[in-house]
Amino acid sequence: MPDPESPNSPDALGAIADQVAAGRDQIAVPESLLREAAPSAAPRVPDKALWAQIRDMNVAERVKLALRGNKDARMILLRDTSRLIQRLVLHNPRISEEEILMLAKDRNTDEEILGELAESRDWTKIYGVRIALAENARTPLAKALRLLATLGERDLSRLAKSKGVSNVVAVQARRILARLGERRG
Q1: What is the mean pLDDT of residues 54-60?
Q2: Nearest Cα residue to 97 out of 126, 118, 65, 66
Q3: By the number of CB atoms within 10 A of the CB, which of 38, 47, 59, 114 ranks highest?
Q4: Using one digit for the tens of pLDDT, what is the confidence trace for 121-155?
Q5: How far apart are the C-alpha atoms of 75 and 5, rounded to whole Å?
Q6: What is the pTM of this model?
Q7: Separation CA 128–CA 123 (nearest Å)
Q8: Rounded Cα–Cα distance for residues 152 and 19 (Å)
Q9: First vs last Cα of the chain: how many Å apart?
Q10: Is the pLDDT of residue 183 over 50?
């Protein structure tokens, strides 16, 4: 059982996140990691020095960076070993649809993160995110099945034939397509 007094306990990290969100923290993070870079045509891969810099940060600094960091920092923190840090990145007000879509498509994204995305009305309003979550085999099954009802016929057909999705998802997509065919026919 985690020690509630530990600085890495979920309660302590939650308190730090609340302070950061309210702007009452005293955590020093390099300003360059908080400012967004100028938009460029091609997506950038964060440099190794940035990876090392973030790896050497303590938990409180990573919490602040998750909630306030720039795109490069967010992309690194989404691979952090702490699931809480990963979840906090989703609450960064500057995270973009493009980043969420990339996360939803990524087969290495943690199931909890995919589940949180599937629960979020803000993100599931975006059709591409719903498709990506339904296609991702790591999305919790119940949430992926719930998303199928919101997809179009063409996408359901593609999912029904796909070998890259869970068998249960493919079977359910076929059932929905069969029901749609019965209504027309």
Answers
A1: 89
A2: 126
A3: 114
A4: 999 999 999 999 999 999 999 999 999 999 999 99
A5: 30
A6: 0.76
A7: 9
A8: 42
A9: 58
A10: yes
